[in-house]
Design a protein that fits this description.
The complex is a heterodimer. Chain A has helices spanning 2-29, 36-53, 60-80, 87-109, 133-155, 157-167, 169-174, 179-201, 213-226, 230-250, 253-270; strands spanning 123-126, 129-132. By secondary structure, chain A is mainly alpha-helical. Chain A has one domain (2-211). In chain A, helix 1 packs across helix 10 and helix 2 (36-53) packs parallel to helix 4. Chain B folds into two domains: 23-145 and 280-355, 3-Layer(aba) Sandwich (Rossmann fold), CATH 3.40.50.2300; 148-273, Rossmann fold. Chain B is built from twelve helices and 14 strands. The longest helix of chain B is centred in the N-terminal third of the chain and has 25 residues, at 3-27. Classes of the chains: A mainly alpha, B alpha/beta. The interface between A and B is large, with 42 and 38 residues.
Chain lengths: 278, 388
């Protein structure tokens, strides 16, 4: 029983961490960032570079965030901003961007799997179970991330502006909020979060140019179900991640792989606006 | 475009065609070896090493005077690692390039898609990839291992030397993954062991957590996995190590190169292969030296998927020399009579179109090296194509 509980909580923490960047961008910019998977990959390779440079493995997290933030700012300015008036084209552009980033990574680093030093390894005794140390650490990191995002959105000027843009962009602009700047910062933040998540999951996954792809669809489903709010995303991660673990444990891991998508479709059928919206 | 220009263009085109066909006539002096291989897609990591193997074999043979006095020419085509790409690649190689033989390492999907074209075009096909077994065609020979040859060394060693009685099996949910583990389960049963559970994750799955929890709860003595190569293999191994799993762990799908890239996480893994770079034989040392000399810094580490390609080219050369012609039927008849002493040892495809192979059981070391534990000489491929 203890193992099942830990499996659910750690899975939810990973899902939350991976999906948060996508949600921030969707919330403020009404833009589904299909390059999210590619930003995860950038984070994975930032961790790889950290290993190559011989830095402390924990340094991968801030390093990935900085790389993601800078790239996010550049991409927003060059690719996303000219397409603000054409939201569908902007989504397609992020799709293409994802492919370009993947290919650039392939050209620079090659297709093969890369070795990344893990900051923590092995298992410790927790709640009477021997459990993966790193997965437990991810729960703490996920919780800190959630608190930081809530603080940013609800207790800072940027958060206030961002929430104003989310609610009614025209009105926010009318009140003197520079929505272009909010969008720029948001895209940078979303990219930084995705990249950081990519670095955070490297000890659990294979670092190759396509590492982000399997996470894209699940992140997308979580964000839709969350109703685009931080508490919503936490609850969605727990429900969908929990369902995935339960189905995998008691029925079959193959069906478990489908659980998030199927359950998300059912939830959205019942509550199209998501769990925590309106 | 004016009419006059149009005629002019047609004239140039006709001249080009005439020149082109003249070119083909002179190229017929070479023996063409078609290599459909996954330069893109799932096999793209390993494909360059396969092409290098073939290039070295061709260069060595050409330097020594060719085959029946004719030079060898390699024609490489990308099969995209899948069925659709393979159809195009085989079509183009067999019917347009008119190759004399196909020698290639491919995915099972690509091989299955290509075989009907091979049968129609009546071209000898030497398949150089290990695979799930029992692929049979009058035109097909295989010089790599099948499950019957790979599984036995690991299971025998775990049960014999390490005293394991109960096993847990984990794999990717696709034909090769399931095929290998079903064979493994039968083999364990036959040897008097028990299989406590077998679990699969889709090929693009990334979270093995619930499966690992089941493994730990089962209390199995040993673990055997057969995932898709590359990402799923690395993901599973990392998560097993993170969860503190330290029972004997046999991996049917990891190659030496991937094992090295996984670093400390791969330490302790047992692998079973027909080729590892540590094989002490003179043939292997010479092969490695020549590869290094030929490709320098561009050398892709030779592996269990690329070395059979090298030997495949030599086996074809020997068969053509024995037959005295490149005639397809004559070469097919000669192929099971010839044997080649290669890096993997003596290779002769005389067991129902498959080859008895020396299999090596090895363990990955903490520094990424591979330690040879024992070798099993001439492991029989078993019943593969009893009707050929």
């Amino acid at each position: 029983m203890g193992v099942l509980f830990l499996d659910i909580v750690t899975t939810a923490a990973i899902l939350f961490t991976v999906a948060s960047g996508l949600m921030i961008i969707l919330g403020v910019m009404k833009l589904i960032n299909f390059a999210h998977g590619a930003f995860l990959a950038i984070g994975g390779y930032a961790a790889f570079v950290t290993t190559q440079l011989g830095w402390n493995p924990w340094m991968a997290i801030p390093f990935a965030a900085v790389v993601g933030f800078v790239l996010g700012l550049v991409i927003e300015r060059v690719i996303v901003r000219p397409l603000y008036a054409r939201p569908l084209d902007a989504i397609l552009a992020t799709w293409g961007l994802g492919i370009v980033i993947g290919q650039v990574i392939t050209i620079v680093f090659g297709r093969e799997v890369q070795f990344v030093q893990s900051p923590l390894s092995g298992a410790i005794e927790f709640l009477g179970q021997s459990y993966s140390t790193y997965r437990l650490a991810l729960v703490a990191i996920g919780a800190i991330l959630a608190l930081a995002l809530i603080a940013l959105l609800y207790f800072t000027r940027f958060g206030l502006n961002a929430r104003a843009v989310i609610m009614n962009e025209d009105l926010a602009r009318g009140l003197g909020i520079d929505s272009t700047r909010v969008r720029l910062t948001t895209f940078g933040l979303g990219a930084a979060l995705a990249s950081m998540a990519g670095a955070l999951i490297t000890p659990l996954i294979s670092v190759d140019p396509n590492l982000g792809l399997p996470w894209l669809i699940n992140s997308f489903m979580l964000v839709l179900v969350s109703g685009v709010s931080i508490p919503g995303l936490i609850v969605a991660s727990l429900i969908l991640g929990g369902a995935q673990v339960l189905v995998s444990s008691y029925v079959s891991a193959i069906l478990g792989g489908l659980t998030i998508v199927v359950l998300a479709a059912v939830i959205l059928r019942i509550r199209p606006q998501g769990l925590f919206s309106g | 475009m004016s009419r006059k220009h149009l005629f002019g263009a047609a004239g140039v085109l006709a001249a080009a065609l005439a020149f082109g066909s003249g070119g083909i006539a002179s190229a017929a002096d070479t023996i063409k070896i078609g290599i459909p291989v996954g330069l893109s897609g799932a096999n793209s990591v390993v494909a360059p090493s396969v092409v290098q193997s073939a290039e070295l074999a061709a260069a060595e043979i050409n330097e020594a005077g060719g085959v029946l006095g004719r030079q060898i020419e390699l024609v490489v085509a990308d099969d995209g690692s899948g069925a659709q790409g393979a159809q195009k690649a085989f079509d183009s190689l067999v019917f347009q390039k008119k190759v004399d033989v196909l020698i290639s390492m491919e995915t099972s999907a690509a091989r299955n898609a290509g075989l009907p074209i091979v049968n129609r075009g009546r071209v000898p096909f030497i398949y150089t990839s290990f695979y799930e077994g029992r692929s049979c065609s009058p035109w097909l020979y295989v010089n790599a291992w099948v499950p019957d040859q790979q599984v036995a060394p690991i299971v025998d060693y775990f049960m014999g030397e390490l005293g394991a009685k109960s096993f847990f099996l984990i794999g990717s949910d696709y034909a090769f993954g399931r095929g290998m583990l079903e064979f493994t389960a039968d083999y364990i049963d036959e040897k008097g062991g028990t299989v406590l559970g077998d679990e699969y994750l889709p090929m693009d799955g990334t979270d093995w957590t619930p499966i690992i929890s089941k493994l730990k709860a089962s209390g199995a003595d040993a673990l055997i996995t057969s995932t898709a190569g590359g990402a799923p293999n690395v993901t599973l191994t990392k998560q097993l190590r993170a969860a503190g799993v330290d029972i004997p762990y046999g991996n049917l799908a990891v190659d030496e190169g991937t094992a090295r890239n996984m670093g400390a996480d791969a330490a302790g893994i047992y692998i079973s292969a027909s080729y590892i770079t540590d094989i002490p034989s003179q043939e292997n040392q010479d092969f490695l030296k020549n590869m290094k000399a030929h490709f320098g810094d561009d050398l892709k580490t030779p592996n269990d998927l690329s070395v059979p390609q090298y030997e495949g080219v030599y086996l074809y050369k020997l068969a053509v020399e024995k037959a005295g012609t490149t005639d397809a039927q004559a070469v097919i008849d000669a192929l099971d009579d010839v044997s080649f002493m290669g890096p993997r040892g003596k290779i002769q495809m005389n067991k129902q179109r498959h080859a008895p192979l020396t299999m090596y059981l090895a363990q990955v070391q903490a520094d990424g090296g591979i330690k040879l534990i024992s070798s099993f000489v001439d492991v029989d491929p078993g019943e593969q194509c009893p009707h050929l």
